[in-house]
Design goal:
By secondary structure, the protein is α+β, with helices and mostly antiparallel strands. The protein has one domain: 2-Layer Sandwich (GMP Synthetase, Chain A, domain 3). It is 42% helix and 15% strand. The protein contains four helices and three strands, in the order ααββαβα. Strands 1-2-3 form a three-stranded mixed β-sheet. It is elongated, with a radius of gyration of 18 Å. The N and C termini lie far apart (46 Å). InterPro entries: FSCA_dom_sf, MIP18.
Length: 151
Amino acid sequence: MELVSGLLSRVWFLAGLSDATDDKRSKKMEEKALEVYDVIRTIRDPEKPNTLEELDVVTEKCVEVQELGDDEYLIIIRFSPTVPHCSLATLIGLCLQVKLQRCLPFKHKLEIYITEGTHSTEEDSECSLQQFLSFEMFKQPSGSDALHSSA
């Protein structure tokens, strides 16, 4: 099967069709990234009345989507806490995870990180965040939404 796939890729490349295929795939990933961003941008900051978008905790550029297979995607989010000593960075990461798990209509895997250089205890917060993200303890019955959202 790999041989056939490799041959097809080579034929497409030689025929000048691979660029069109790559462009379609790239556009699809950009659309998925915008879909993800639309879900997370309205989450409210745990300490302030503003959304994560209004505080520049999340931006369109902080979301990356990669295709893993048929209708399965890897979502990578790198958020920036409002201040370097933010004590709620882990909570923000968990809010991102739960909101995406509840709202995205497609199969996905999540990787959520704190943007490098934006937190004073980045390594510790990153470790805590990854430990929390690895647990499946946030499953609640549908209809009970503990996340604050402006939408």
